[in-house]
Write a structure and sequence with these properties.
mainly beta
Length: about 110
């Protein structure tokens, strides 16, 4: 899971890293989870999901290109409302060899 500190309004910020980032109350972190089919056959019923961490809420972002939550090559599911907590998810009925699907979402650390 990649993560980056971001602006809570636009969803833009630092480059993604796999190193844990430290966010203070009121700050936002963007997560990206990528599922890649590294096999030689199509996989089915792919689900990417994650929960909002403790002491955080989902931050809905509508800025084009940095939307949150956002699914690429998949269908968005789970929570999507600003301030919600719980599971964010994306599904893909079939994923061809060497193809990928991703889920991105922003969380805000509670004050």
């Amino acid at each position: 899971k990649d993560q980056a500190l971001v602006d809570c309004t636009t969803g833009t910020g630092t480059a993604y890293t796999q190193t844990t980032v430290s966010a203070k109350p009121g700050e936002c972190v963007r997560y990206r989870i990528v599922a890649t089919n590294e096999g030689n056959a199509t996989v089915t019923n792919v689900v990417i999901s994650d929960n909002t961490p403790s002491y955080t809420t989902l931050k809905a972002v509508t800025t084009s290109g940095t939307e949150s939550p956002k699914a690429t090559n998949a269908t968005l599911g789970g929570i999507s409302a600003d301030g919600a907590t719980g599971t964010v998810s994306a599904t893909q009925p079939s994923l061809a060899p060497n193809a990928n699907a991703s889920l991105e979402f922003v969380i805000k650390v509670n004050n």
